[in-house]
Amino acid sequence: MISRKPDRVAIIGAGVSGIAAARQAIAYGFDPIVFEKSPNLGGIWNYSDDPDVRSVSFSTTSLSSKELMAFSEFPPPEKFGIFMHHTEIMEYLNLYVDNFKVRHLIKFSTEVTAVNRADDWKDSGHWIVTTKDG
């Protein structure tokens, strides 16, 4: 039997959706790489006081209960409040990527600047992802 390499999948952003997409890509036999322009995961949940960086406010607490916003296969720790503070959400996201072994797939401080079809796209389905290290 001939084995082939799994298809590569590019995921832009290591926020909630990006890390969930990476986990599911692995589960379905793909080889994902996650490009995250910041040095940390979490997307907007990763607080920054830099006015040029989009993030939650320092005092932000989720409007949805932890049971409603949780990943179905990975509930938040009991010690977290019902309505999690952004620091608890960040801890939860870090627990998730470590539990499902996703962290090594994330290229931090790497901004995607362009995504274009490869010249042989009609035959291969390949795309060219252009990045810039931050």
From TrEMBL:
Superkingdom as given in the UniProt entry: Eukaryota
Protein name, per record: Flavin-containing monooxygenase
Protein source organism: Panagrolaimus sp. PS1159
